[in-house]
Automatic annotation (TrEMBL):
This is Phosphoribosylglycinamide formyltransferase. The active site is at 102 (proton donor). It catalyses: N(1)-(5-phospho-beta-D-ribosyl)glycinamide + (6R)-10-formyltetrahydrofolate = N(2)-formyl-N(1)-(5-phospho-beta-D-ribosyl)glycinamide + (6S)-5,6,7,8-tetrahydrofolate + H(+). N(1)-(5-phospho-beta-D-ribosyl)glycinamide binds at residues 11-13. Keywords: Purine biosynthesis, Transferase. (6R)-10-formyltetrahydrofolate binds at residues 57, 100.
Length: 185
C-alpha cells in the first residue's frame, strides 16, 4: 500500500511512521505533503529520502493536492498534525482511506480550535484524571469520523499542560504506526 502523510508542523509522528514502514513489505510512505514550506516535517522526510510536496491553502482548495495524491497512486492518506480543513472533494475520493490522530479522548476536546496545546490546556483546566489519543477515520466534520483506536494515560494534579502533551505524544508515537498497519491490511 502507498501512504502519504500530511503534516503542518514538527512531524514527530510522521517520523515514527516513516521509520516503522521503512523496510515493510506491507506499506511504503511515498510522499510527505505540507502547507508550510518551512515545516520541520519536510527535513525529517528528506532524512528518510521520502519525496516532499508543499502547497498553499488556495492550491489545495483548487484540487492540487488531490491531483498529486492520485498521480502518486496513493492508497491511504495519513494526517499527522495537519492543520488545514481538507476539501470535501479530497475526503470523498479517500473516504475510509484517510486517518487522523487527535491528542485527546474524543468526543471530548474535539472540534474546531481544539488542536495542539489548546487541547492539553483545556484538559488541565477541567481537572481531568486522564487523557489520551484517538485515531479515527476522517469525514466532513472535524473529529467526528469513525473511531478506530483509543489509548489513555493518567494525569496527576501536578502535571502541567506541557507534561500532559509529553505523555500524549509518547502514546501517539507508540501506537500510531501499528494502528495504521493493522488498518491498511
Ligand atoms: C499531535 O499531537 C497530533 O495528535 C496532532 O498534532 C500533533 C502533531 O505532532 N494532531 P507532531 O508534529 O507529530 O510532533
Amino acid at each position: 500500500k502507498r501512504l502519504a502523510i500530511l503534516a503542518s508542523g514538527s512531524g514527530s509522528n510522521a517520523e515514527k511512521i516513516m521509520e516503522y514502514f521503512q523496510n515493510s513489505p506491507k506499506a511504503e510512505v511515498v510522499l510527505v505533503a505540507s502547507n508550510k514550506p518551512d515545516a520541520f516535517v519536510l527535513q525529517r522526510a528528506e532524512k528518510f529520502k521520502v519525496p516532499t510536496f508543499t502547497f498553499t491553502r488556495k492550491e489545495m482548495d483548487a484540487g492540487i493536492l488531490l491531483e498529486k495524491l492520485q498521480a502518486e497512486k496513493v492508497d491511504w492518506v495519513i494526517l499527522a498534525g495537519f492543520l488545514l480543513k481538507i476539501p470535501d472533494a479530497l475526503i470523498h475520493v479517500y473516504s475510509n482511506k484517510m486517518i487522523n490522530i487527535h491528542p485527546a479522548l474524543l468526543p471530548n476536546y474535539g472540534g474546531k480550535g481544539m488542536y495542539g496545546m489548546h487541547v492539553h490546556e483545556a484538559v488541565k483546566a477541567a481537572g481531568d484524571k486522564q487523557t489520551g489519543i484517538t485515531i479515527h477515520l476522517v469525514n466532513e466534520h472535524y473529529d467526528e469520523g469513525k473511531i478506530i483506536f483509543q489509548a489513555a494515560t493518567p494525569i496527576s494534579p501536578e502535571d502541567t499542560p506541557e507534561m500532559i502533551a509529553q505523555k500524549v505524544h509518547a502514546l501517539e508515537h507508540r501506537y500510531y504506526p501499528e494502528v495504521i498497519e493493522s488498518l491498511i491490511d
